[in-house]
Amino acid sequence: MSLWTAAEAAQATGGRAVGEWACNGVSIDTRTLQAGDLFVALKDVRDGHEFVAQALEKGAGAAMVSRVPEGVSADAPLLIVDDVLAGLEALGAAGRARTQATVIGITGSVGKTSTKEMLRDVLSAQGRTHASVASYNNHWGVPLTLARMPVDTEYAVIEMGMNHPGEILPLTTLTQPHAAMITTVAAAHLEAFDDITGIALEKASIFDALPIGAPAVYNADVETSAILAAKTVDKRLNGLAFGENGYEYRLTSVDIQGDTTVVQAQAQGAPLLFKLATPGRHFAMNALGALAIVDAIGADLAQAVTTLGNWTPFKGRGVREVIQLDPSEPGLALSLIDDSYNANPTSMAASLEVLAGAQVVDGVGRRGKGRRIAYLGDMKELGPDAVALHAGLAHLPATQRLDVIHCVGPLMKSLHDLLPEHQRGHWAETSFELIDTLRRDLDAGDCVLAKGSLSMKLGLIVDAIRKMGHPVTDA
């Protein structure tokens, strides 16, 4: 069964279909387009209409456009709408309206993608599950995710993000979730908000479109938890607090054992024991929130706990690898923690804690002593306190337990200047500048973290470390 026929798409968007066609997917990028997709010609850095001919040549089933692009036949398979973004939103709304799926909305300053991936895994074991791809969580990512949702979906997990006030409410109104979760509220995007209270109010708006009595899961450990709780009361929702201060879902113990995290908690007063196949207290917290959602929507909690035991992080968000430096000597390897996708003070502190507790290997390599080494890039959009927030990383207990810290970017210079000499590594304006010294700076037995905002391109360092050898397995 096709995802959208010409007639269905035209009815959903109010557009005009040219030809009789059917599509099996929806794409906004010719680089990842699959044969049979509906190509949506959005305007971003470049106008998507410039790529319609290429999309059709690659096998697109049709293209959503506001005009017939140059080089495209007038009888080509098209869906002509007044405005392409509005057309995508309408298609997403129709995709949401025609399914009987239980829909879950997720937002938060930190951890929303990891939590979404946890829910995708555990719910996929219990029914047909659809979820946001990567971090498709903005004004085009959410409608795209909804437009891609198959009619027979049983569970849907939709991630919602924001950079400015007023962005969450339109997304949750479009999504119409049956349950929603706020992973945490932290100092992120402060350039657009007066303070963290404003961020909490914006995140809490994900609860605004929930029906009365719906599960509204929120982190009870954040300083603004009272704002989140008040929203659940105001909207007459089933507020469910999780965390060490959680009432319904209480975290009681986190034990990191090598590459495994063992968690003890209470779920509605009953004992709950689960594990994750990755280290990290922040992952334990996200997992507890995910299990609260599973429990609240009536899915199988015991089965979810079992499935969760195999979960590992998404690429660029804390995934661990072993890089074999010499194929002839298995002991000559280093561990890599790739957390290069994003960063703010809360997620940075969590990643540094993971690195500080990571196992290193002595007796191998040139130095014979394994070290915990960090490559840290600027954290963006922190407003007027950005320099102080970067410098403040120097005082974290986890930071003080590391062996070497290399810094990237003008804001991280404030951290670099405060580091004691024995910890102070290189400082550079860009990630690219540190690549040439990697082979000298790293050795077998080391554990290496790369963390920073996406624009700092710490992924270049991650890729260069991988090229020092070859990944052999998840750590």
TrEMBL record:
Any one biological process term the GO annotation gives: regulation of cell shape
Pathway per the UniProt entry: Cell wall biogenesis; peptidoglycan biosynthesis
Origin: domain of life: Bacteria
All copies of domain Mur ligase C-terminal, residue ranges: 335-453
Signal peptide positions (record): none
Localization terms from the record: Cytoplasm
Keyword Cell division part of the UniProt annotation: yes
InterPro entries: Mur-like_cat_sf, Mur_ligase_C, Mur_ligase_C_dom_sf, Mur_ligase_cen, MurCDEF_CellWall_CoF430Synth, MurE/MurF_N, UDP-N-AcMur_synth
Pfam entry (one): Mur_ligase_C
Residue spans crossing the bilayer: none
Gene Ontology MF: a single term: UDP-N-acetylmuramoyl-tripeptide-D-alanyl-D-alanine ligase activity
Keywords, comma-separated and alphabetical: ATP-binding, Cell cycle, Cell division, Cell shape, Cell wall biogenesis/degradation, Cytoplasm, Ligase, Nucleotide-binding, Peptidoglycan synthesis
Residues bound to ATP: 108-114
Keyword Ubl conjugation: no
Enzyme Commission no: 6.3.2.10
GO cellular component: cytoplasm
Main location: cytoplasm
Domain Mur ligase central per the UniProt entry, residue ranges: 106-293
Class of enzymatic activity (EC top level): ligase
Catalytic activity: D-alanyl-D-alanine + UDP-N-acetyl-alpha-D-muramoyl-L-alanyl-gamma-D-glutamyl-meso-2,6-diaminopimelate + ATP = UDP-N-acetyl-alpha-D-muramoyl-L-alanyl-gamma-D-glutamyl-meso-2,6-diaminopimeloyl-D-alanyl-D-alanine + ADP + phosphate + H(+)
SUPFAM superfamilies: MurD-like peptide ligases, catalytic domain, MurD-like peptide ligases, peptide-binding domain, MurE/MurF N-terminal domain
Family, similarity comment: Belongs to the MurCDEF family. MurF subfamily.
Function: Involved in cell wall formation. Catalyzes the final step in the synthesis of UDP-N-acetylmuramoyl-pentapeptide, the precursor of murein.
Name of protein: UDP-N-acetylmuramoyl-tripeptide--D-alanyl-D-alanine ligase
Source organism per UniProt: Sulfitobacter albidus
Gene expressing this chain: murF
